[in-house]
Structure formats: structure tokens, C-alpha cells
Amino acid sequence: MSKGLTSRNEDYSQWYNELVGKADLAEHSAVRGCMVIKPYGYSIWEKMQAALDKRFKETGHSNAYFPLFIPKSFFSKEASHVEGFATECAVVTHYRLKNDGTGNIIVDEEAKLEEELIVRPTSETIIWNTYRGWIQSYRDLPILVNQWANVVRWEMRTRLFLRTAEFLWQEGHTAHATSQEAIEETERMLEVYADFAENIMAVPVIRGRKTENERFAGALDTYCIEALMQDGKALQAGTSHFLGQNFAKAFDVKFTSKEGKLDYVWATSWGVSTRLIGALIMAHSDDAGLVLPPRLAPLQVVIVPIHRSEEELNQITAVADELIAQLKKKNISVKFDDRDTQRPGFKFAEYEMKGVPVRLAMGGRDLENGTIEIARRDTREKQTITRENLADHIENLLEEIQTNIYQKALKFRDENTCEVNSYEEFKQVLDEKGGFISAHWDGTTETEKRIKEETKATIRCIPLNNKQEAGVCIYSGKPSTQRVLFARAY
RNA sequence: CGGGAUGUAGCGUAGCCCGGUAUCGCGCCACAUUUGGGAUGUGGAGGCCGCAGGUUCGAAUCCUGCCAUCCCGACCA
After folding, report:
1. Which of A152, A247, A323, A457 is most buried, by CB atoms within 10 Å?
2. Of the candidates A129, A117, A118, the residue with the CA atom closest to the CA atom of residue A78
3. pLDDT in tens, A177-188
4. Distance CA A147, CA A85 (A)
């Protein structure tokens, strides 16, 4: 476990702040808990966006954009929804400032809004208010829309990347003619997320459903993917909600079916956020810095020249240029770092911190021998090889690294997932080891809450395709039909 | 919003108890020597000591208030 990546903000090390981002934007409470995403970190987000967006399009979705401000009255139309978000809303009450005559800029009380605006914490309400005008007939369905946006949730406590007051995300909002179709959509998008997490981020996830207690405000069912971080805590990495007809009823969105019957529309919503950057970091990094899976690394290959003279550098550059051209043909991003302001050793350490998957180093020795030094970030191994078929070799190595990072995380999760059969054992594992704990639960919210109060562990999910198995609840001793997954979580 | 801690250069810090305008390291700038794992030497720049009051001849230091940050809790993608 990296010293830079524990659960405590104070342990996020210097390199982490330098490279990825920092919540240091102002000495003012109004922006407390917001974050700055620096260029390198943002380019990781852009890669995530591109990969996700591609999958959204492949599954028939289109992007759209809805307003940042939501009238308070919209917001309060769905009872459980407003209840769930009421305590974390930023509210706009005025629209103008003025000079008070002494040079101070103050809020102009005359510019008070008749109705307050909520800065969106999520967009269900304003989108469903809009959908009312888009939907009349079954021919208008389904509506498969996604929005890339920022949202604000005024949490009492923030945590860099995992829970910031403002965050970037995507939120999909779909409308369907039947319950079944909406449930299928909910499950489809969960699988899109799971596939993205595992194949692009190299983070293994558990697909599951939330308990009633942990469900999204306004949803009938919440599906989620849960990942395990290196410190043994779980992280909810994405959610997909089956909203039933709740929002359609709240916003009066009806359609005429093929049979000529008027009915409310069925809905889903699903989202992932910049929290994924935190997940990526905490799942893979080590003491030398970030470890990025090649498919998300802003820079996949770096070449560091080691030279004593200008002439030597020119010779190295010539070899490098040829290699760069070959790599670019393969769509592999590469940088030739010939800065003369830093020494090779410094560069090696720097690119390790940044998590660049493959590093090449070439000096006079290699020029003579026709070789090059190749180092991989995931295992930190390096070897000197000939330059024959180098581009192909690198292409294969990047794939191998992608796989290896995933396998390593998967092995870690397997080693930190265990079944327990008593509450004593449960508490012991939780305190000594952490990780996912599979245990029988009687299915009541009361038991769930008691366990949370006593141990801080929550039910992360009821895994999909869960094995049905008779047992007794570790807490109440009542009969249970299946195990659920517990963990302490972020 | 409760409980605890902390604010000194870009970053990390010493000094505070026992008042005399600030220590060290990293980083930064210049020059030289270096360059296959975070170079070395010499010289240099950089600070309203979180903010506002108070006590005092004199405050980083003592007192009061405020602000901010971090940790724990409630809340949560």
C-alpha cells in the first residue's frame, strides 16, 4: 500500500498533489471542498470520458445538455428525491451585486429571486420536466440521453477526488414505454460501467444491487459496481438506477401506448464521476507514484536520451525519431524527453511518479550495441534489448501491462474477500484485515443500521447472480437465503 | 454542525512554555564541474510569522475575537 494513498487526506503525498490535483484554490469557505484538476489529471479524465462516451454511443445513447439551475419547485416534486438531497444543496437567492456606497460590493437585496434556484446536485428533475414536452406517444420512446456536466453537492465533509463539493460526471437519463425495458436499460448500463472499470481502468468490480437503505433517493432499485481499494476500503464506483414511474408521475409525463392506453413513462438514470480518478489512483499506485493502465495513460511511452555530447544526442534522436514514427502509426502516445534541464535519473523518477507505463532509455552504449533499455512501470523491471521489432514489442508490452495491472488488483481483491459466519468473526476480520466480507443478513434495514452503527461497515451490495444459500443472519440469527457483501467504505 | 489539532518563503519545518522582527531542508535563480537511477560546489533571491484587536518600550512568541485547513463523527457519487 502506498504511503501516499491511505484514507487520510494528510497522507496524500506531495507528488499526488503536484501531478493530479489539489483542493487549494482559495482561502474562502465558499469554495471549500472544491478541487482543481491539473492538466495531467484532467487528461486522464478526458481518456475516461472518451472510452465511456464511445460505449454510450454504441448502446444507442446521445449527448445533450440541461440547465445548471433548477427551480426549487421542480426539485421538490418527487418527495423521496428532495428528501435525499435537501441537506446538500447550494441555493441561489439573488442575481445581482451592488456597491454599498463605501466601495464594498454587497448583495443587492432588491435583486432577490422570487423563487430560489438550486444548483443541480443531479438533473432528474429538470430533465423530467423537459421530457414532459418531448413525449406524447410510444413512438417518442425510448429517449436515451446522456449529459456530461458538473454538479454540486454541499457535503458536510469532503475528501479529495472521492467526495468534492463540485464534481464532474456524466448522468444518463432514459425514458421507456415498459418497466421491463427500463430494467434492461438499467442493467445494460451497469454492465457498461463494469466493463469500463475492468477493461479500461483495470479495476475489478463487484456488480450488485443496493439494499433499500442505500438506494438512490427516488429510485425503486439501485444497481452499483463496487471496487476494493488497497487500504481495504470499498468504493462505490458507479450506479445505475431503475426509477420506475416516480419521476414521470411527479412531472406528469404520460404517453399513449400502441393499444391507445395512457400510461406514465418508465425511467432510469446512471452516472459515474471524477471519483473514478480517485479509484484509479487508490487501486493501483505504489510508493513510487501512480501506476496507470496503458489504456488511460495520457502518455504511454517515454524515451529518455542519455548523452555526453551534442553529437551523441543527435544520433540518439535519429533512432528515436524512427521509433516514434512507428509507435504513432500504432496510435501509441510517446514523448521524447530531451530536456537538458534535468538529468536522466531525475526523469526516470519523474515518469514513474506520473505512472507512464513504458520507459525507454538510450545512451552511447546502446548506440554501439544496437540496443535500448526498456522499463515497465507496473513491475518496475528493466532490461536491455535489441531494437529489432521494437514497436511491436512495445505494443505487446502495453497490452501485457494492462492485463497484469488488472490481475494484480483482482488477486488483491480475492485475497481480501472472505466469508464469515458469526458476528464475532465479522468484527475481527473487519478490524484486522478489512476488505469485502460476505455474510448472511436477515434482510432488514434495522439489522443493517445496527451493524453500521456498531462497526461502520455497510452493505456494499447484494451481488448479481448471487448464490442462494440457506443460513442465519450473523447479527440477528434469523434465517437468511443469501450472503451479502459488507465493507467499510469511502 | 459537534469533538480534537494546526496555521511561520512555492513545499516541509525550528523558534512559542521563558517576548528583543526568524532556523533548517527541499525547491527556485546564476556560474562551474557533471549527466546509464532523483548530481556537487560556490554565490544569490524569496517572509506584513493566517487576519483583526489588546497588553508591552518592544509580539511569531502572551491575551481576546475572527478566518482557514486537517483529523474524528453525522452526511455522501
Report:
1. A247
2. A129
3. 999 999 999 999
4. 20
Name the grid cell of A108. 443587492
pLDDT tens column, A104-135: 677 888 999 999 999 999 999 999 999 999 99
* Nearest DNA or RNA nucleotide to A17 (CA to C1'): B11
Q: Which nucleotide is closest to the Cα of A458 by its C1'?
A: B76
Number of other CB atoms surrounding residue A345 within 10 Å: 10
Close Cβ partners of A261 (under 8 Å, ≥ 6 residues apart)? none
Nearest nucleic acid nucleotide to A362, CA to C1' distance: B36
pLDDT, residue A103, reads: 67
Q: Are A346 and A304 in contact (CB under 8 A)?
A: no
pLDDT > 70 fraction of chain A, expressed in percent and rounded: 92
Q: What is the pLDDT of residues A439-469, one digit of tens each?
A: 999 999 999 998 998 898 999 999 999 999 9
Name residue, grid cell 404517453: A255
Which pLDDT band, with edges at 50, 70 and 90, does A20 fall under?
A: low
**CA(A76)–C1'(B67) in Å?**
35
**Buried/exposed code over A359-375 (b: 16+ C-beta within 10 A; e: otherwise):** bbbbbeebbeeebbbbb
Length of chain A in terms of residues written: 490
Nine-digit cell string for A295: 489504456
Question: CA dist A251 to A29, A83, A366, A424, Å?
Answer: 35, 17, 70, 48
- Beta bridge partners, A271, equal A171, A239
Q: Which of the nucleotides in strand B have any atom less than 7 Å away from a protein CB atom?
A: 1, 11, 34-39, 67-77
Distance separating the N- and C-terminal Cα atoms of chain A: 16
